[in-house]
Amino acid sequence: MRIHQLSLTNFRLYARLEADLPQGALILVGANAQGKTALLEALYFLATGQSHHAASDRQLINFLALHEPQPFARVVAEAHTARERLRVELRVIAETGGEGRMRKEILLNGARKRLADLAGRLNAVMFLPQDMSIVEGAPAERRRYLDLALSQVDPVYQQNLSEYGKVLAQRNALLKQIQESGVAPDLLEFWDGKLCELAGALQAARVHAVAELEALASPIHRELTAGREGLRLAYHPSFDPAAAVAPDGQLGLPLATPAHPIGVSAAELEALLRERLKAVRAEEIARGQTAYGPHRDELRFIANGLDAGVYGSRGQVRTAVLALKLAETEWMRSRTGEWPILLLDEVLSELDAQRRADLLRRLSAADQFVITTTDLAPFPPEFLARATVWRVQSGTIAPH
User: Fold this and answer.
1) In sequence order, which ranges of the chain are alpha helices (DSSP H)?
2) How far apart are CA 217 and CA 221, in angstroms?
């Protein structure tokens, strides 16, 4: 999988950019706040339809373009995969007549498509310094990581996830109505059925993905730690009846407890959630919120039997994330038959010399990867001899 041409219009710092991307390693070098990360963001946006950095799509539009009558940002790529030649175009358009309202358009080979249709067409794995939040941040960070990874390789998962969000919003609104207006609780039965069916499918997909990622990440982590540490990924559903549930709806069991058995089917998971929702109906009405489901599930990283997010040092957390991302790269390749496009933002500066060498050695097998840096010194001379280097300055690029 490889992107050959990239075109940006009014995207972040780039008023206009046309670039032919090389095969293999591309190094973007320059000072901070010059547009290096924005270029990675554009490539990730093409693969997922989402930004790792922006709180809203409006932030993707170049600040000067925001003063135009109808502000927009546009990202276009010509790509080759094992299956097809592909032209991907994403547009973010500020709606007229509504402050802050945005519209996103997706075109594949010129035809207008839904976000779900983007899944699996281009795949990308991004390494960011702030990815340490996957291990030590809030549960929502880990759920988002899983959802983004799965949505790239599984269109059905992406569709189910989108539908689950809509059903969850409807169910929460009904819970509020029952709480405030005395609407009959029996009306929940319809939304319970919809929610549980989607939840079972989502959780089954997550459980399998976590098991596959762990099988890949564990030996990578052991290699990165010279055999001193082991890594486990523990996926904990919020509605597992074997788990002791804390009052806030999150799990109260020790995090070293094994994750949910991979052999449990989506239908069984659906039935488990149905029983849980029946048991806590009065509680949910009192709170006006759905307390159980994939939106409350948790993923934890266990290093040598301890929760790395709670007890891990900064170095341990960084190593766990690096092992996870390398595993994700191999996992996507096994799922799709192709290397994803690899995007690395200032990652080498966080690693010692041996781990830099290990990372570059592993990534060099990929068809295409892009690395940002403020300094070329951390790169071995033999790696630089094989790479293409571009200097980035104020939203422009030039050969170094």
Assistant:
1) 36-48, 133-136, 139-153, 155-181, 188-224, 266-279, 281-287, 308-311, 314-336, 353-363, 381-386
2) 6
Q: What tokens does 10 get?
A: 């009014």
Q: At CA 105, angle to CA 102 and CA 108, rounded to 5?
A: 165
For residue 229, give every residue at least 6 positions away whose Cβ sits within 8 Å of its Cβ, in sequence order, or none: 221, 222, 303, 304, 316, 319
Question: Contacts for 226-231 with beta carbons within 8 Å, 24 or more apart?
Answer: 229/303, 229/304, 229/316, 229/319, 230/303, 230/304, 231/301, 231/302, 231/303, 231/308, 231/320, 231/323
Question: What value, to the nearest 5°, has the Cα angle with vertex 387 and ends 384 and 389?
Answer: 90
- Both tokens of 242, joined, read 């074997």
Q: Counting runs of H as helices and runs of E as strands, what totals does the chain give?
A: 11, 15
pTM for the structure as a whole:
0.86
Length of the chain: 400
CA-nearest of 125, 122, 16, 24 to 79 is 122
Phi and psi (nearest 5°) for 44? -70, -35
> From the CB of residue 391, how many other CB atoms can be counted at a distance below 10 Å?
16
What is the DSSP-derived secondary structure letter of residue 124? Answer: E
The answer to whether the CB of 158 falls within 8 A of the CB of 120 is no
Q: Map residue 176 onto helix, strand or coil.
A: helix
Bridge partners of 278?
A: none
Query: What are 21-72's pLDDT values in tens digits?
Result: 999 999 999 999 999 999 999 999 999 998 877 878 889 999 988 888 889 9
- The two tokens of residue 75 are 């990202």
Identify the three-state secondary structure at position 345.
strand
Q: Output the six-digit token pair for 361.
A: 């050695």
